[in-house]
Amino acid sequence: MLNFRRETTWGQAVDAFLDALDSVLDATMMLIALLILLGLGAIAVLYILDITQRAQAIRRNYPVIGRLRYVFEHLGVFFRQYFFAMDREELPFNRAQRTWVARAAKRVDSTLAFGSTKPLNRPGDIFFLNSAYPPTAEEIAAHRPAPLIFGESFLAQPYIASSIFNISAMSYGALSGPAIAALSAGAHKSGIWLNTGEGGLSPPHQTAPCDLVFQIGTAKYGVRDGDGQLDLSKIRSLAAIPELKMFEIKLSQGAKPGKGGILPAEKVTEIIAKTRGIPMGETSISPNRHPEITNANSLLDFVHSVREASGKPTGIKFVLGDTAWLEDLFAAINHRGIESAPDFMTLDSADGGTGAAPQGLMDNMGLPIAFSLPALHRKLLQAGLRDRIKLIATGKMLNPAGVAAALCLGADVVCSARGFMFALGCIQALQCHRNTCPTGITTHDPKLQRGLDPTNKAHRVANYAAAMRKEVDLIAHSAGALDPSLLRPEHAFKIDANGLPEPLLSTV
Length: 508
Description:
The protein is of the alpha/beta class.
C-alpha cells in the first residue's frame, strides 16, 4: 500500500512537472512568436520608412539592408585601426578626403580635434605659409575682388563668372538624369557653372537656369550633322540659350588621352540618342581626336569658327604630355594676333576620372596637374598670353587645400567632377562603368536611379560649393591674401623628394 502511494505521488509530481514544462514551453513559443511578429512588424516599418525617404539613396534602393552600411561605418570608427585602411591610405580618394566633402555637403561641422592625421613629409604635398599680419575682417569686407571675365575686350558677349570653383565636365549618359538634374539645381542655388560634358545639352541639364559650359567632344554630340561633322547652325541655336555661357572644345581628357569613347548600343536610349544626335539603339564611337584639327593653325581655325558662330567665349581642354605643340600654338597666335587665341584653356590632370578607361592610359599617360599646371602657366607667361587666356584646372581637386594649391600654381578657376559626385552621395563603389551604381549616380537602371532624389541632393551640391569657397577663403586670408584670386607661389612651400620643404616659387 505504501509503495503504491509513493508511486502515485511520484507519478503526480512528474505529471505536474511535465504540465508546468508544457506551460513554460507554450509561453516561450508564444513569446517567440510574438517577438517574430514584432520583428517582422519593425522590418516592415523600416522598409516603408526607407523606401519613402529621400535623403539617402542607399536606404532608398536597398531598404532595411542598406542600414547595415551605416552600422558598419559607425563601428569602423572603433575598429578600422585593426581591420580597415587608415584615414589617408585609400585610393583614388581616401577617407579623410571623402569625409570632408560629405560633411560639407550635409552642412555638418568639419572641424578636427586632437591633431591632424596628414603626414608632414610626403613629397609633392603643398603647405601654405601663414602671414604674420593676415587681413582683418574689416579689410576683407571692404575688399572687392577683381571680376573673372572670359573673352574680355574680344567678344560682344564676354562671360563674367561668379565663382572660382565650378562643376567639371560630366555628360548625360555617363551620369544619370536625376544626378544631372541635381547638379543643375545645385549649381543654380550656389551661383556656379556646370559643364555639360561631351554628351550634349540634355533636358536634365536645363532643370534649373544655372550657367552652362557646352563641351564639344571629338564625336561632336549635340552639334553634329548626319555625317558626324560640326554643324555651325546647331552652335548658333545653342548660343541663343541665355544660360549657355561658353563653349569648350575637348582635345583630350586626363583619364584616357589619345583615346575616344564607346557608347554601347544598349545605353543609346531615345533621350540620349536625341540629345547626342545619333541613331537610337546603335553603338556610337568617338574618334580619338577631331579629324579636322591637325596642327596649330587648324586648331585656331576651329576655335574661330565656334566663337564666330556663337559669339561667346570659346576655349580648349586637354591633358598635357608633349609640350612642343604648345610652342607652335602660341607662335601661331602671336602671328595671327591675340584675338585669335582661345579665351580659356582647361587643363586636366593625368589621373582624371571617367566612367571607364584602359588602365594603361589611366595609370601611365600624361602629366599630373602638379607638374603640368605650373608648366603651362610658365609657357603662357613666356609667350605673353597669360593675361589673354584664362586657365582652368581640373583633376582630383575636391578639398580646399587642393583648390588653393592650384590657384597658387597659376589657375584662375578650379573645376571638380568627382567632388560633386561625392556631394551627390557617391561611396566610391567603383561601379561607374557597370550600370550598377548603388547610389543611382552613374546608372540608367530606373530601380537604382529612384534612390537619388534630385531636390535633396541639389541642396548638398550647393552646400559643398559654399563650404569649398569658404575654406579656400580661409586659407587665402591666413596666407595674407585678401581673396583666393590673389594667391601666388610665394604663399606656399612644397615638400621635396627628401621630405623637406622648398619654396613653391622655385617650381613655377
